Amino acid sequence: MSNTILSLDQGTTSTRAILFDAELRPISSAQEEFTQYYPHPGWVEHDAMDLWQTSVRVIRNVFADTVTDSGAYPAALGLTNQRETTVVWDAETGNPIAPAIVWQDRRTSATCAKLRADGFEAEVTKRTGLLLDPYFSATKLAFILDQTEGAREMARAGRLKFGTVDTWLIWNLTEGNPGGRVHATDATNACRTMLYNIHEGTWDATICDRLGIPIEMLPEVRDSSADFGETTLFSAPIPIRGVAGDQQAATVGQACFRPGMMKSTYGTGCFALLNTGSTPVTSQNRMLTTIAYQLNGTPTYALEGSIFVAGAVVQWLRDGLGIITDAKDTLELAQQADPEQNLYLVPAFTGLGAPWWDAEARGAIFGLTRNTGPAEFARAALESVGYQTRDLIEAMHADWSATPEDTTLRVDGGLSANPFAMQFLADILGAPVDRPANLETTALGAAYLAGLAVDLCPAPDEFAKVWRADATFTPQMDAALRKQKYDGWTDAIHRTLSKA
Ligand SMILES: Nc1ncnc2c1ncn2[C@@H]1O[C@H](COP(=O)(O)OP(=O)(O)O)[C@@H](O)[C@H]1O
Ligand SMILES: O=P(O)(O)OC[C@H](O)CO
Known about the structure:
The protein is of the alpha+beta class. Helix content is 35%, strand content 22%. Strands 17-18-16-15-21-22-23 form a seven-stranded mixed β-sheet. A six-stranded mixed β-sheet has the order 3-2-1-5-14-13, sandwiched between helices. Strands 4-7 form a two-stranded antiparallel ribbon.
C-alpha cells in the first residue's frame, strides 16, 4: 500500500510539487517559475496554460527524483493555489478564452467604485464576507465576459467554464477520470470569488445577476477534503482528495484548528488568518470574513487580513535599489542600522490592503537624514512587515477578542526565515511568535487534507498535537519604546493614505 501524499502548490510566481511521507515529512520537491505579464499599469496576467504545464512538469520532476518503486507512489494528491485569479475556458476545446486575470490586478477598480457608489457593497459584504474590491474574482470574470469577443454568446450556449486556479487544474488533471472531467472547487476558494454566499454555502444569485454572470458556468463547491476525481496522466491513477486556497491551506498546515489561533504567511504579500470557529464574524474594521476550511459539510470561519507587499519590499531592495544581492543580506544589514534613526518605509507600491483598502495610496519614506544608508533601508523594510502585521492584528482583535493563551502568532513563508524580521514582529506585537521547522506549510496543509480523506492522516486534534515550533521569538522591546515606534508608524501611514 502506498503511503506518500503528493502536494501541488500553484502560487503567484512559481509552481511547486512536494512529495510527503505518511508522517508528513517532505521527501522531495520540484519548483518552476513562470512568466508574469503586465500589459498595462495595474494589470497582472498569467497564461493559464503556463499554470497547467508547470504543474505537470513539477509533478513529473518530483516523480523522476523519488518514485522508484510502487510503494512510494502517492496515495492521494492535495492541491493548493493562488486564490482569486480568474480563468475562463471553452469546455469544448479546453482552451482559455482570455489570459488569467491575477489577484493583484486592479483593472476593475472603476467597476467596483461604481458598484460601491450604487450602495452595493453592504449587500456584497453581508452575503460574501468580503469588501467590494477588484482583488476578488467576480469583477474579473465579468470583465472577461464583457471584453472578450464572442464570450457572451459562448456563455449562453453553455460552452464556457469559470474557475479559480484549483478548478482549472482539476479540470485538466481529470481528463481521463472514469466519471468524466470534474468541474469543481472547494469552499475556501469559492469564498474568494465574491460570488459565494458564505452563510448559505451556495453561489449567490443576486450578485451573479447584478454582474451578469451565468451561474451555470460556476463550478460545483465541495469540502476541502473530498473526492475531486482522479488523474490518470501519470504512471498510475492518483485520486485528488484535498483542495484549498493557499492561505487556508497554510492555516491547516499550521494546525490552527481552535478558535483564537492565528497564522501569518510572509511570501510576496502577507496574509493573516484568525480562526473564529463556527461563527462567521463580521468585521467592523475592514477585515475579510473567509472560510478557513470545510470538513464534512461544516465550514470553519476565519477573519483575514491581507497585505499586498511583505517579501516584495525585500525584492525591491534587491531589484529596484540594488542595495542587496540576496534577500538574506537584509539580516546583516539591518543589524548594522543606526539605532538612533527612525526611518519608516510604507511599501504601498500598489496601494494599501487591509485594514486601509486604499488602491490610490503610493509608497513613502519618512525620517530620512544625511546619514541614512542601505542598512537603515533594510531595517525599515523588515520593520514595515511587523508594523503592517500589527495593524491587522489590532483590527482583528477589535472585531473578535482572542483568549490570552491564544495570542501566539504562527508564522511561515519565505520572509519568516529572517530572524531580525521575526524578532521585530514579536517586539512590536508584544506577543510571542512561533515558527515551525517546515516553512512550506501551504503544501503541508494541502497534503494533510488529501491524507485525511484517504485515512493516511489523523483527525485535526491529533494532527495539532504533533505540530511543533522550531523557533519561538519572545518580545524583548521595552513597552514605552514599542509605543513610541508604533505611534511613529501610525503617523507615517496616515500621511501616506491617498485621502490624508
Ligand atoms: N532571508 C530572507 N529575508 C528576508 N526576506 C526573504 C528571505 N528569504 C525570502 N525572503 C522573501 O520572501 C519572499 C519569498 O517567499 P515565498 O514564501 O517563496 O513567496 P511566494 O510564495 O509569494 O513566492 C520573497 O519576496 C523574498 O524577498
Ligand atoms: O501565491 P501567493 O503565496 O503569493 O498567495 C496569493 C494569495 O492567495 C492571494 O490571495
